[in-house]
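yo

u said u wanted the structure for the complex thing, so here. seqs first:
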Amino acid sequence: MPSRPGIPRPTAARVSLYLRELERRLEQGQATIRSRELGHSLGLTDTQVRKDLGHIGHLGFPGVGYRIEDLIARLRFLSGTDRGWRTAVVGVGNVGRALLSYDRFETEGFRIVAAFDSDPRKVGTRVGDHEISSMDRLGEFVQDRGIRIAIVATPPDAAQDAADALVEAGISGILNFAPRRLEVPPPVVATEVDLGMSLLQLALQVRIATGDLLEIADESSKAAPMRARSIRR
Amino acid sequence: MPSRPGIPRPTAARVSLYLRELERRLEQGQATIRSRELGHSLGLTDTQVRKDLGHIGHLGFPGVGYRIEDLIARLRFLSGTDRGWRTAVVGVGNVGRALLSYDRFETEGFRIVAAFDSDPRKVGTRVGDHEISSMDRLGEFVQDRGIRIAIVATPPDAAQDAADALVEAGISGILNFAPRRLEVPPPVVATEVDLGMSLLQLALQVRIATGDLLEIADESSKAAPMRARSIRR
DNA sequence: CAATGTGAATGTATTCACAGCT
DNA sequence: AGCTGTGAATACATTCACATTG
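structre next:
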């Protein structure tokens, strides 16, 4: 039920990796690439690259490799970034400001066409090229400007309300920077970038990589089944 | 070879999710939680929660559930966030500034104890509580202040040099916000948060969820094997 | 009795091995 | 000859089913 739409989830997650590397190579004037080469740059095996690209279309030439330009065109088409996703930012605090100034979105196929904040003192001011609008006008803007994706960068307490308003306005996807899970009804999609969680995951990997917690984790995995412990601390 | 250190990777990736939800519940005064409940809040099954927590230690009480406080203590211990990771930010542009102002890191077990930038005009200025230092002093600070984790938020061209300097200085992990893959020698760990990639992944999920590309993806998956195509465009 | 912890069964992703194409 | 695309084999993760515990 979660989704079997042709492209396996892990493959979909790697599409953006492929795209970034391919564009780097194209810039450097490279015209074709072999699966081995691409995989090596990305820390993947050649087989995995071919399987992934196989899910996406038959674009390789045996004995030659893949034409980078065609592959990019295909991936951009699949992700819709060839047509420019119209995007809104909701919540203009520290993070929101950084996002509004992040010029790279444009070249990657996303155009920020509106910014909203609930603080009346911010409404009407500008950040970079963007004028901040009142949350009241969200429905109107989403409709008029064809906005399909929103970035939520409000404080955590305001995030779900913002999401509800966005869903109500007819948005299709939300990228959430507030550190809490958002509830959205299907087929709306919400994904999350939690800076604290990213750091914590890194920290855990560091502890694993440096071997700090090898015994700790093992000790408890293979202990006697249901061994007695007191519920008192 | 990649790592089999007791805790499976997908489980490790969920640890931060568990922690965030558990802390929310603890704040609200909840003392214990059942796997079903926790899973429901996170979009996971009860079995999955129990398997994950089983990898981490035997902290559940049949018929009762898990003591939230103990579970948090355990997860914080595992991730080392109970002792406060000393962290540096390298690159103080839009993103770096947002990170330096992001007060949540502190409560989540990370303390930013230094900020660096290669631009001499920025050196000596302050962002929030943090004074910006010259890159020359990186080795010195890392040593003196016990820095083990760094956040790289430089422009892409400077990111690998920054990473090399950090590795040289003896850092253990890097969280990279620059849109390119960093090479680091083991056991140093580098993970990535690429805002453009996050948006692209969301866009792809939106297209999958809305069914926009069902036929597109399928068409090519089951086509005749190795059908002829010209390499001319 | 109600919930955990865990082997067994299932489902999914990755890797292998090689047929088929240019 | 060299590389892609892909079934078959393997490895891994999730789910099921239930014995075990507080």
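Residues 8, 10-11, 45, 47-48, 51, 61-64, 225-226 of chain B lie near DNA strand D (CB under 10 Å from a C1'). Residues 140 and 181 of chain B are 26 Å apart (CA to CA).
cya
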